[in-house]
Aromatic-L-amino-acid decarboxylase (Serinibacter arcticus), 461 residues
Amino acid sequence: MGEALHTAAAAAHAWLQSLDTRHVNAEHDVDQVAAVLRQPFPEQGARASDVVRELVAAATPGLVATPSGRYFGWVRGGVLDSALAADWLTSAWDQNASLLAGSPAGAAVERVAAEWILDALGLPGSASVGFVTGGQMANFTCLAAARHAVLARAGWDVERDGLLGAPALGVFVGAERHVTVDLALRYLGLGQARSTVVDADDQGRLDLAALERALEADELAHPGRPRIVVLQAGNVHSGAFDPGAAVALAHRFGAWVHVDGAFGLWAATSPRHRHLTAGLEHADSWGTDAHKTLNVPYDSGLALVADADALHAAMGERAAYLIQDDRPDPLATVPEFSRRARGFTVWAALRELGRTGLSGMVAGFADHAARFARELDALPDVSIVNDVVYTQVCVAFADDAETRAVAAALMAEGTTWMTPSTWHGRTVLRVSVSNARTDDDDVARAVEAVTRVLGQVRGGR
Ligand SMILES: *Cc1c(COP(=O)(O)O)cnc(C)c1O
């Protein structure tokens, strides 16, 4: 066992050391990696350390350098050293974090990490926090608490009786909500396409006047019915934030307000960016990720719910064979029963950074994004499509075909990873900064790569 762990630690170290020089994209595709590993299920087992060596040899060519400082795809985050080490310990300790009695350490570290997160994000200290797998499950968990609360207020027990025969519930979402909001509504029996879709502006921000019109019309048609309004902190294309004033507006119509803040909620930690989230702290629930902006390894998300009882009512359960007292167990904050103790990595990242380090890291992401915008905008026939307010930059080249060609050529070239998308009818190259490892040199090398690749694309035409 000791040998297997040392082999793994050495391989992990070699991988991290290679990030600065390796091709950001994988060398082998999925079929090639599978072909190396494929054999009939072996009759005989193997030594643990040999298993690790075999895995490293087969997997390494198929790894994407996601933790590289020049990886700007989707919103992926990086990995802080303390969080990575804590993640190894989480597996070695193998705690089942479902019950207070099942792992006092797991529950205690989650409790302290939750207190720090609520403080850092400027959210109510009395909120309950569930340590889930990511933003998708954070949205699901928070919206389950929302569904419980608004139906309970209408005299309906959705946990006991389900949705058949329940009072009709109105859900309002912005036109540029993240797809995981629709999925969460699907899982909750609320239908992924039944929501009232509220218009968004040119940056993807929900339009306040449109929300007011929608809520007024709903109040006329269905006076006093249960309602949920879903807002967004951090649009994946523009990085824009829905207006905080939407919270008070939605509350006037009795709605529960949920904020999908997978990467955007962290703007609240930076004094220079805090204005972006102003007002959103008055919402009822917030979903966010630790594996994106906080730079904790996958998978780690946070469901934050102001009304702790609503969360515990939606998620909690008791059983005779468990050891439970009157205090809510961790299992009452998440959909899972058994799960890993996710608080260790989150606590470690927060402890490594401290308040100053966290706010500096988040501001640094936005500063790198602003530099990308400035330097790419200066290239001939290249424009920045969004107002760069946070960590996201959408770049358009001379036309859609050229943008697609640049995206493909960058992927093949391997200095950096930026993902193509379509936004407001235009093909764009998305640059998303969310890795603590990214420094000025990485940004400079990535801009050089785009410039070089653009020259090749234009030269080849
Ligand atoms: C990433 C993201 C999600 C989903 O989070 P996962 O961690 O991938 O489950 C939800 N909303 C927004 C705005 C996101 O950026």
Remarks:
- The chain is about 45% helix and 10% strand.
- The chain has three domains: 2-68, 85-348, 363-459.
- The chain has a mean pLDDT of 96.
